[in-house]
């Protein structure tokens, strides 16, 4: 195989040659169908345990895999392994980074563990295939090397990143990255914790995955590889979903929705759920039980573009004042915790129950040869559902998916917000949606609050930060370099509009993901029409940019208590202002770390203005919305 690759001009690094030539046995895969069969150790098996001999522990079962009518279903034996641990990353090399160094954390050089990992892999039967992370030719080629019994993990990786058949490699393919999978090492070296180690060699970015949950390695780990390439070359892979939306009046608007894990990226690609009577529930008051509903006869249509990652490569840009982006993934890692019963999401239910090709389900309760149903979530304990059930959808089976770069009109940012009241004030003071000046849009991306009750990761539930662009947990380099790249991106795209949308709560109202969905409906219907000057004003909390004075969607007037949280009698100005101070404290805690000599001068001015309590208009003065591209009509 190595000789065949080299005939095609694909150079195989020496350490990978040595590993493959000395392994007990190597199985090469060219298609996801082959990996489907490997997931249960053969097409004849309907159930398979992924287990390893762990010194000091004996035989340990990591996951139980079922062959089901609609694909493969894998369930981890530990609830901890069903969510991404945000502390998985460590850096093994000596290249510039703000992340934890392996040697500093564990007290020895990674080369020792690297040798142990290769020795362990050589003693296994291996599953090997080639992938492309990105959107060829923008991205990074690589090789995946995993124990053969971890076929379900390899399948997930091959869905998320494009599997490259050996006999059909595109011209110019290079092995610039490698992912090595060694599950038992989490027990023998890391006290049972998920760990992913990045080793950035010259010409090869190595990724060592010491666990079998695809989130921190096959997905976010390789996202980190793309971010490293972008940091070196001066471009960004944004953490976002992207959708082209078409109104009933044929207006078309393209949204890029960014945010930390749980910030509503996948939900931006979903239809607004209706109640049984056809109405739309805006929210439910958690104190009084009151419900506020509205009637929308026709929803906008939309074409999905990206689910979680978008390449903003220089070759895509058109120089027209807007940002152009393309999907960085081959498959979408969709969380289905919001689907509690049949009928909650007809689109996902239909495409997952009877898909055109096998899918991979994680944390979904199944029986061998049965059907995986996305509302049957695995139970972490009796009466407690796993909050992170997943399905991986190959993007090519998604109806109306867009396969080319698109131009962005609106960049929204999503924040998980807790309930807020006078008695229990919190940062849940964000209205249905806000308009952000570009400078504030940049600041929100720098702090990227992970937010309330995050279902995707193991966490404390506090208002932690995911940092620059909300992708900082996956980046390997310098924080300030990414801050500069994001600011330069905003400066160079003055025609893009910026919004902020909460999810889960608006004050004491439980709203789910309705705010961003209603924003999508409203702004698409308006098209290029500007807001009138009396429709907005600076928010009571300047960090929220402009708040809306009124909002009407298809004849439905949205009550002002959803637009200005201090209008809610359960919150009032007192509760709102205490929540605003919590928000300011969070910004004051997170922003000073960017004030290094490498920060762009304009970035320094914006951060210092925030730390000094700037007004909304002061943010506008620092980075104006250009007059001919302005979102608002300014009264002269």
Automatic annotation (TrEMBL):
<dbReference type="InterPro" id="IPR032583">
    <property type="entry name" value="DUF4914"/>
</dbReference>
<protein>
    <recommendedName>
        <fullName>DUF4914 domain-containing protein</fullName>
    </recommendedName>
</protein>
<dbReference type="Pfam" id="PF16260">
    <property type="entry name" value="DUF4914"/>
</dbReference>
């Amino acid at each position: 195989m190595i000789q065949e690759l080299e005939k095609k001009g694909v150079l195989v690094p020496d350490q990978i040659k040595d590993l493959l030539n000395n392994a007990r046995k190597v199985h090469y895969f060219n298609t996801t169908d082959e990996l489907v069969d490997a997931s249960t150790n053969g097409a004849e098996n309907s159930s398979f345990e992924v287990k390893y001999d762990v010194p000091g522990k004996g035989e340990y079962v990591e996951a139980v895999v079922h062959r089901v009518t609609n694909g493969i279903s894998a369930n981890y034996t530990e609830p901890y392994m069903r969510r991404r641990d945000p502390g998985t990353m460590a850096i093994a090399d000596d290249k510039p980074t703000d992340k934890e160094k392996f040697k500093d954390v564990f007290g020895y050089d990674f080369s020792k563990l690297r040798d142990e990992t290769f020795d362990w892999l050589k003693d296994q039967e291996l599953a090997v295939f080639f992938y492309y992370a990105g959107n060829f030719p923008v991205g990074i080629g690589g090789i995946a090397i995993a124990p053969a019994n971890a076929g379900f993990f390899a399948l997930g990786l091959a869905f998320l990143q494009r599997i490259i058949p050996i006999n059909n490699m595109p011209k110019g393919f290079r092995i610039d990255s490698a992912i090595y999978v060694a599950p038992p090492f989490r027990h023998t070296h890391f006290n049972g914790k998920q760990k992913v180690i990045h080793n950035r060699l010259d010409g090869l970015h190595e990724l060592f995955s010491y666990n079998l949950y695809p989130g921190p390695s096959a997905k976010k780990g390789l996202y980190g590889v793309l971010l490293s390439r972008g940091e070196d070359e001066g471009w960004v892979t944004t953490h976002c979903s992207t959708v082209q939306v078409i109104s009933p009046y044929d207006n078309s608007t393209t949204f890029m929705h960014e945010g930390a894990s749980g910030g509503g990226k996948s939900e931006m690609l979903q239809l607004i759920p209706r109640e049984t009577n056809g109405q739309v529930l805006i929210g439910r008051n958690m104190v009084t039980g009151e419900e506020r509903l509205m009637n929308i006869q026709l929803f906008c249509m939309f074409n999905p573009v990206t689910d979680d990652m978008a390449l903003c490569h220089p070759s895509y840009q058109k120089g027209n004042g807007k940002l152009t982006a393309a999907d960085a993934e081959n498959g979408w890692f969709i969380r289905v915790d919001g689907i509690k019963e049949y009928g909650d999401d007809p689109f996902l239910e239909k495409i997952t129950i009877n898909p055109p090709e096998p899918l991979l389900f994680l944390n979904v309760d199944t029986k061998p040869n049965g059907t995986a149903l996305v509302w049957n979530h695995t139970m972490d304990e009796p009466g407690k559902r796993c909050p992170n059930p997943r399905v991986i959808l190959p993007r090519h089976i998604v109806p109306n998916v867009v396969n080319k770069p698109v131009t962005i009109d609106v960049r929204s940012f999503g924040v998980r917000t807790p309930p807020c009241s006078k008695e229990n004030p919190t940062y849940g003071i964000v209205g249905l949606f806000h308009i952000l000046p570009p400078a504030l849009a940049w600041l929100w991306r720098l702090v990227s609050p992970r937010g309330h009750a995050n279902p995707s990761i193991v966490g404390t539930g506090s208002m932690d930060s995911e940092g620059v662009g909300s992708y900082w947990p996956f980046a390997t380099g310098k924080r300030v370099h990414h801050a500069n790249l994001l600011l330069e991106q905003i400066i160079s795209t003055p025609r893009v509009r910026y919004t902020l949308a909460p999810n889960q709560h608006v004050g004491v109202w439980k709203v789910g993901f309705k705010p961003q969905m209603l924003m999508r409906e409203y702004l698409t219907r308006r098209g290029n029409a500007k807001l009138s000057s009396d429709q907005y004003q600076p928010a009571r909390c300047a960090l929220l940019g402009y708040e809306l004075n009124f909002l009407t969607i298809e004849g439905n007037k949205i009550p002002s208590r959803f637009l200005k949280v201090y209008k809610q009698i359960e919150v009032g100005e007192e509760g709102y202002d205490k929540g605003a101070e919590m928000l300011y404290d969070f910004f004051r805690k997170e922003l000073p770390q960017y004030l290094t000599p490498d920060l762009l001068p304009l970035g320094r001015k914006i951060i210092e203005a925030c730390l000094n309590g700037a007004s909304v208009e002061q943010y506008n003065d620092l980075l104006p919305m250009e007059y001919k591209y302005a979102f608002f009509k300014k009264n002269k």
